[in-house]
Amino acid sequence: MKTTQPKAEYPRGKTTPSRSAGRSSPGWAQGILCVLLLAAVLTGTAAAYTTQESIEAASKVYVSDVTYSPGSFYPGDEGTVTVKVTNGNTAEGVVVNHATLYDLDSSFTVTSKPFSSSTTIGPGQTQTFVFSITADTMGEGTFYPIFSLSFRDANSLWYRSSVQIEDALLELTVNERPDTFTKGGKGTVKILVWNPRETAVRSVTIVPSGEGITTTPIKAYVGDLAPGASKEVTFEVTPSQETTLAFTAEYLNGVNEHEVLVSMPVTFGHDKTGAEIVVNNIESSGSGTTMTLKGDVTNNGLTDARSVLVTVESPATPINPNPVYAIGNLEPDDFSSFEVTYTMTGTGKVPVVVEYKDADGNVFTEKFSISTSSNTAASGSVSAQNGAVVNGGPGGSRGMMGLGSGINQLPVTQIAIILVAIIALLVAWRKGLLKPLTDRFRKKPEIDDDLEEQ
User: Fold this and answer.
1) Which terminus of the chain has fewer CB atoms gathered within 10 Å of its CB, N or C?
2) Which CATH number fits domain 54-165: 2.60.40.3880, 3.40.30.10, 3.30.950.10, 3.30.830.10?
3) Tens of pLDDT along 143-189?
4) pTM summary value
5) Strand order of the sheet with strand 108-110?
6) What long-range pairs does 368-374 form, CB within 8 A, spacing at least 24?
7) Same fold across 54-165 and 277-409
């Protein structure tokens, strides 16, 4: 019986054995031989370059400087690392390549490409390598990135440096401010900026902001701040409304922008160091609907009240001859009399308005409610505005008897005339010019006596 030999099956992708399967195939052996020959060539080439002299030459190559910019990083800051490698040999150059920077703590990310190409550092020369890096956004502390450099004819050079990541912002402090602000009035605010970091920051600028706020200057340039350094800046602040006033310190750490701010409330109130107006000694007189109001205005504050004006307002109507009475300046503890004429229908309280300016030209208004029946004054509201005061009608004239006893209200001219007359009489008496007159009065009684004897 004839049997059939089953046909051999081979996995797809593989070839059937050849007829010469019993003999070894030379393909794989040839590949191994090529690899060995190439390795031998490369090993022989490297061995040819690596000599005792090249190793000694590489040992004199060193990292001469490492500079981080900025000197310390905020989390997330971008910067650079500049590494300088110096060849300390006096007669032999060295070939280097594969300059790299890496960090085992992953505190920095190197964003620039490594230096893969070869370069020769000549005797006594320095080669600079600059890497771009970004600090980790979460880490703080001191970290140690590693710089490595390969030699063509020797082993590699390794160098570890240190750098800080710290999150300390500049500190702002309000050193001085008014106890209270007045609408349209200037107030002095002093801001202190301090650098608590281990390295300097650049281009520090203080910028004030707030709704309804005007400042002089608009912003203050501080410049660079060294570690631990501080500087005070002064602003003149004029608010037109109650608000929140903020001061922002803008600065650079390397090329990275940062800012920090401090804020303070702006509320209106009475200025403790300003002028304080008091109205008293009120007298009201007149007939029919035409009335005359007299009284004294006193500055009971600590600064001058300038360009003081006195008038009345509705329901009273100021009329000539004195609708608005101009007093002028009142120094602290000084006073002056005033006289205002007005008409008023019916009875009731008369609102007396006193307007004055401070040294900066800001206009303040104080109102007093006068009861004409009892001749008393009650203090009313106080307001201020930044601008000129316009009043209709001429200012009232003041005679010698209408002035107060304040130092700037004395009748200087009249007193000077009296003093000159007294001095002239004293001089005439000392020179004997008055003797004939005095002798005449002395002889007159003697003549009268002779007439009596006859």
Assistant:
1) N
2) 2.60.40.3880
3) 999 999 999 988 899 999 999 999 999 999 999 999 889 888 889 99
4) 0.62
5) 61-69, 78-87, 126-135, 108-110
6) 368/279, 370/279, 370/282, 370/284, 370/293, 372/284, 372/291, 372/293, 372/347, 373/347
7) yes
